[in-house]
Amino acid sequence: MPASINPSPVPRERDLLGQTVVMIGGSSGIGLETARLARARGAAVILTAREPDRLHRVGLELGASIAAFDATDFGRLGRFFDALPAPIDHLLVTGPGPHYVPPTGFDLDAARRDIDARLLLPLQVARHGAGKIRPGGTLLFTGCTGGRRTAAGLAFAAALEAALPAMTKSLALEVAPVRVNLIAAGFTGTPLPDSLPGDGIGELREQLGITLPIGRVVGPADIAALAVHLMTNTAVTGATFDIDGGQQLIGK
Hints:
The chain is α/β, with parallel strands linked by helices. The protein has a single domain (about 20-250), classed as NAD(P)-binding Rossmann-like Domain (Rossmann fold).
């Protein structure tokens, strides 16, 4: 039988054996779950995080290289990339949850920290890190979907969330052939800002578990699976992927 003249250029699944994945913010939540999955798929993992004790424990768990520092210290971030001993294949940047506050309660210093963590950090990572990524590798950001609703208290979150997809598209052209993508998550059950104090998180989790079309809330492992898929699918760049279990469909 003759060979197919149109073989698929991309296998259904490529493992990460022999590749190196760097997680900026890799000691908890989405970063940690992605690190675990990447490690299980054969990758060498390099983790950074702010809290050294927790990072040390995770490093031991995964057999990962670690570096403890605040990624919004951009001078320190640059030195981290300068010190990487070899090219890497994939780079994931996680960020804080959305900042939901009405104008009357707006804290300018907190807002500046959010801009650093959610807008300037991805730009600085692209500046220092893209040249360390092998051609065809991945620069992957995380964001949120909550600010897309029109509601009181969402003005600042909405502005940041609108900026990230636009930044992702532009960077995909600027740093090609490195691929750049954004994962925009809904409620994941991980800690949210103080705008949901007390039992607010538990109440929201219970409500969404009933009302979401998928019948449960999205977990960090779901986002990790998407992240690894985007690392291995070499045809995807400049895109934003929503993963919220249908939360936007029900207006929550």
